[in-house]
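Design request, tokens follow.
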């Protein structure tokens, strides 16, 4: 699935193009300390996942990766290079639309205990916290040693928080 194309202001969101795939993979590897992420004890190579990119003209200003599996869609990564500009919201909406288009009724995502800004961002967009996996980041660090001990706002980086949003049915 390639995902929908949407426009918000001067920013256009759509599937990553073949010509920019390597550049986006390098950007994500830089943002995530590696080309992999470890979520709920699973390893995902970001470059292997469906990817939506936010562009302002020819400049990449954000990206989201996701996967469609079982009975739910899962947002794996979401990054805006211009916080507060609506890019994260546009990317999230595009992932949700891709899920709806594929027949999914639920999107889930996982963030970490230190990411309090993201927790607010997702809750304002209809996501609800459904589970805390205590020690998940400690376990993930064994698979990906680049994960720091201390996260955002100086908080110890230890746990995963899972959020879900039920999507509107067609």
């Amino acid at each position: 699935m390639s995902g929908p194309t949407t426009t918000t202001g001067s920013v256009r969101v759509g599937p990553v193009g073949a010509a920019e795939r390597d550049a986006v993979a390098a950007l994500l590897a830089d943002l995530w300390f590696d080309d992999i992420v470890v979520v709920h004890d699973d390893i995902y190579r970001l470059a292997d996942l469906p990817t939506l990119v936010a562009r302002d003209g020819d400049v990449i200003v954000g990206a989201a990766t996701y996967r469609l599996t079982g009975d739910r869609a899962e947002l794996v990564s979401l990054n805006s290079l211009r916080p507060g500009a609506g890019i994260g919201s546009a990317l999230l909406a595009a992932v949700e639309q891709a899920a709806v288009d594929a027949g999914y009724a639920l999107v889930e995502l996982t963030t970490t205990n230190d990411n309090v800004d993201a927790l607010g961002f997702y809750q304002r967009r209809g996501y609800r916290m459904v589970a805390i996996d205590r020690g998940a980041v400690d376990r993930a660090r064994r698979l990906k040693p680049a994960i720091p001990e201390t996260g955002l706002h100086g908080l110890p980086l230890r746990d995963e928080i899972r959020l879900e949003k039920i999507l509107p049915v067609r």
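Comment from the thread starter after seeing the answer: thanks! The chain has a mean pLDDT of 90.
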